[in-house]
Amino acid sequence: RSFFVVMFGRFAVRASSSLLRQPRLIPVAARVGAAPFHSSAVRFADVTYQHTDTVDNNADVPFDFTAENYEKVHTILAKYPKAFKQSAIMPLLDLAQRQAGWVSLSAMDKIAHICDT
């Protein structure tokens, strides 16, 4: 008999080409030769990151966008309704990283202030 496998999340449905057999759920890991979905180590969500102040990355180090980048900030913010300005956080973080080469704590604070007002 031939059969086909259809994926549904963590389960696969094995259905026979014969109409006499009912499809049945089998765990993906139980399939012979099945590759795991994740090839990297499992990360746990309960582990939090704690910032440690350094000489070049603390709240006292100044950060401000350039005049050219402030125009881009306004262009980015114009794409979102006023009630949803926090949706611009990722593009603004990208802009800060392109300007400074990395995202400092001061840059994050600046972006939070921009999206909060």
Q: Can you describe this structure?
A:
The chain is an alpha+beta fold. It has 3 helices and 3 strands, in the order E-E-E-H-H-H. A hairpin with a 2-residue loop joins strand 1 (3-8) and strand 2.
End-to-end C-alpha gap = 65 Å
Number of E strands: 3
The strand order across the widest sheet is 1-2-3
Low-confidence stretches: 17-21
For the sheet with most strands, the description reads: 3 strands, antiparallel
How large is the share of residues in beta strands?
5-15%
Q: Report the order of strands and helices.
A: EEEHHH
User: Helical region count?
Assistant: 3
Shape: globular
**Proportion in helices:** 25-40%
Brief rundown of the structure:
The chain is an alpha+beta fold.
Summary keywords:
117 residues; alpha+beta; three-stranded antiparallel beta sheet; 3 helices; 31% helix; globular
What is the strand and helix layout of this fold?
Layout: E1 3-8, E2 11-16, E3 24-27, H1 67-78, H2 89-100, H3 105-116
Antiparallel strand pairs: 1-2, 2-3
Helix pairs in contact: 1-2, 2-3
